Structures are given as structure tokens and as C-alpha cells.
Amino acid sequence: MLKVDESDAFKGKGIIKGIVKGKDKGNISLSKLKKVFDKESIEIKLSTYLFEKIKENNPEAKIPNLQAWAKHMDYIIRIDKRDPEIIKEIIDWCQADSFWLTNILSTKKLREKFDQLLLKSKRGKKPKEDWRTT
Q1: Per residue in 59-75, pLDDT tens?
Q2: 67, part of any domain
Q3: pLDDT, tens digit, for every residue of 17-59?
Q4: Residue in 73, 61, 8 with CA at minimum distance from that of residue 37
Q5: Mean pLDDT score of the chain
Q6: Strand partners, 40
Q7: What are phi and psi of 2, to 5 degrees?
Q8: How far is 105 from 67, CA to CA, in rounded Å?
Q9: Do the Cβ atoms of 41 and 77 come closer than 8 Å?
Q10: Coil, helix or strand for 57?
Q11: CB 26 within 8 A of CB 41
């Protein structure tokens, strides 16, 4: 068990909050720790950026849980080792493409399809135009 004090903070991108249950409220297992991202973190900023792009294409888009979105953005940056600038470029590209803008509607899907998006964006093709507007 990990002893967590209310003053303990995760150094870096956010803080860790424990879900405390039972009698021994000072001891929290690692499985019950949850990372909370600061509003100034790159994960929240990129998640917000994706949502703003989605909102441009669909003004009726439902506001997401940005903490949940930031978790997947954290995975893209930390685990998949993607550069935030490349992530932003891929967001711009996919939300300008008539096919991908309807398929990339969350950071979870962005992570899942990132390699495909990266390859297609590097092919030198411009994003597909919507056939209805040409």
C-alpha cells in the first residue's frame, strides 16, 4: 500500500487523486490513483484543440470529458512517444479531410488511428474535399 498525504502531488503534468474507501483512509492502493491534468498541461491543450476543430465541423458536438480525453492524449505523448507538434498537425489534417473528420471524434480514436493518419498525411495528398462543395 502507498501512503498518500493530501499535500502529495504528482510532479509534472498533473496531480494524483486517490479514491479513498474503507477504514484506513491514509493508505491508497496504486490501482485507485487517478491522474488529474492541469488546465495548462499539453494534454488538456491538445484535447481542447481537437474538440475546437470538431466543433468547427459540427457546432452541435457534445462537450467531452476533457480529463478522459487528456488521459488518451497522455498515452499518445508518453507511451507512443509522439511529438505534440506532430499531433497538432495530424489533428489539423484529419479534421480538414472529409473522410477522417467524421471518424476522428475523440482522442481515443486519434490514438487508435494515428499511424494511418500520419502515413496518409505524409503521402503529399491534400485532405479530401467534400464532394458536395465542389
Answers
A1: 999 999 999 999 999 99
A2: yes
A3: 554 455 555 666 666 678 899 999 999 999 999 999 999 999 9
A4: 73
A5: 82
A6: none
A7: -105, 130
A8: 15
A9: no
A10: helix
A11: no
Does any domain span residue 114? Answer: yes
Residue 75 and residue 46 share a domain: yes
Report how far residue 134's alpha carbon sits from residue 131's, in angstroms, rounded to the nearest whole number: 5
Write the CB contacts of 105 (distance below 8 Å, at least 6 apart in sequence).
Answer: 54, 61
Say if pTM beats, i.e. exceeds, 0.85: no
Return the C-alpha cell found at 54. Answer: 470538431
- Domain of residue 54, residue span: 39-122
Instruction: Cell numbers for 109, please give them.
Output: 480514436
- Max CA separation in the chain (angstroms): 66
Residues 24 and 61 in one domain: no
Domain count, the chain: 2
**Residues 46, 69: one domain?**
yes
Note whether 97 and 117 are same-domain residues. Answer: yes
